[in-house]
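Record 1 of the preview.
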Amino acid sequence: MKVITANLNGIRAATRKGFWDWFADQDADFLCLQELKAHAHQIPPEATPDGYHHHYHFAQKPGYSGVALYSRLKPDAVYIGLASIDPNTDWSDMDAEGRFVMADYGSLSVISVYFPSGSSSALRQTVKMTFLERFLPLMKRLQNDGRELIVCGDINIAHQRIDLKNWRGNQKNSGFLPEERAWFKQWIEAGFTDVLRQLYPEKEQYSWWSNRGQARANNVGWRIDYHMCTEETGEKIKEIDVYTENWYSDHAPITAIFGG
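->
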């Protein structure tokens, strides 16, 4: 089972840069996309490849956020927006921003999620923290309900020092704040596996590079894009690869392969 996640920073821009030509050669079972920056009528024809079911959660604001989930198998059920699976929690703020799609395939649920960033203002950091407070109980509930989960997306948190180049200078910045990292630790302690770290605990591997300066050329990056899995599924991981030969976004596509 091959699962790709990619923040495209605009599905139209990534299409022009050749993302779908690359995807056509991947033989993937699932594709989780974040930051579409488009509405339904703006999805390029190339972004609806033959042989895949596709489901979107668009933001209300034009040119902002948005996620998608593509799969070869037809899902048993699809949930668009967090309120669709967690109606007892107020998700109206996040659902207006188009941040969540989940699809069920037997006992397995695959999720494409785009966590909010807090880097633009103190207000957005508060929004991010309230999102985290609501999201973890939901993950625990799905896990306790017996769902096997593969959660793919831009989490907007570098968990450990190894997950960003300049960790010393970023300890007071959104994405590497102590409270964000503590939350991430709680997610793992709840029984979820960071797939890349399970295979490569000491590998210096990033998934996002700033467009400023020479960050990409000098590999001054952050690892903020993840495959997170419930334990049983995490134990089936065979390989994970961050693709950096060509650039379709300021994020790199990440491919995880799970076995039997």
